[in-house]
Design brief:
Radius of gyration: 21 Å
Number of helices: 9
Oligomer: single chain
Keywords: Oxidoreductase
Order of helices and strands: EHEHEEEEEEHEHEHEEEEEEHEEEHHH
Number of strands: 19
Structural class: alpha/beta
GO molecular function: oxidoreductase activity
Shape: globular
Strand content: 25-35%
Helix content: 25-40%
Pfam families: Pyr_redox_2
Largest sheet: 7 strands, mixed
Protein name: NAD(P)/FAD-dependent oxidoreductase
InterPro entries: Ala_DH/PNT_CS2, FAD/NAD-bd_sf, FAD/NAD-binding_dom, Metab_Enz_Cyan_OpOx_G3PDH
Amino acid sequence: MITTDIVVIGAGPAGLNAAITAASMGANVLLLERNVLEGGQLIKQTHKFFGSKAQHAAARGIDIAKALYQSASQYPNVTMKFGATVLGYYEDGVITAEHHESIITIKAKKYIVATGAAEKSLPFPNNDLPGIYGAGAVQTLTNVYGVLPGKKVLMIGSGNIGLIVSYQLLQAGVQVAGIVEAAPEIGGYLVHAAKIRRAGVPIYTSYTIKEAYGTEMVEGALIMQLDKNWQPLSGTEIDIPVDVVCIAVGLTPLTELLWQAGCKMKYVPQLGGHIPVRDENLTTTVSDIYVAGDVSGIEEASAAMVEGKLAGAAAASSLGYGSGKFAEIRREALAQLAELRSGPAGAKIRKGLKLLVG
């Protein structure tokens, strides 16, 4: 059995920052990632980040992933295992993981769960036709492997993911026939929407997809308008010929390990669904388990990185490492999170967090 101070599960923006911070305070860290590449969703993100210098503003996600990995690699007290899928958490505090076709058991003093989120699906007739993808799959094809998903795309969802992926497809030479949004207003940042509109892409608010059609693959989709009560209005259908329909209707936190560990969970729709109840230091109701990133509530990658730093510092400090450092790291992290969640764009997050602790 492997023993260590802290196990970090997930090598995305939150997990990498948690490992770096905990290691910098002196803790021995084992970082487990089920994929073969580090960085999580960062490796798909070719756009430049907002925020401050501390949050890698003006850097592209793919470059941030490389920088975080290089930083973690510099610490001799960080061990990283890629292709390692954590299978279960047991009542004695032991976890199991599959790694290179072998099962390994691990006992850590503290765990930081940074498993991220999964894409939500959308039910509509013929949604299983080839050519209908989740936005994450389209980003992986296009930005990681350099493979275009098709020639003409209809995007479903105008949150930041839908807007950013649409723009990335335009940059890659794919025609975007339109963006469909069921809500009466665009969900993502208007700065992203403005770039899409300047490229001549229509954004259909208060519309939904009625059905996709095609024989061996998707050949088009019918969209239709919704009234103020979200009911479809007959006679408003628009036929849009496309060979790709991309679904970007939100994310769901990947919380299976937290349920298994007995962490108290709460349904908070503003944060993506069921998320763990935790304190300001990101400690769950199981005192040896911390959370960071999308698994603790869906937010932007910048917030995930800050949460990772806070969780890593809190876990290391609880084991007696980094004397005197935790208070300063905590103060800076909480200030950055408050800034990221400020203003109209952060209203949904603030409301969700209020429900979580209420």
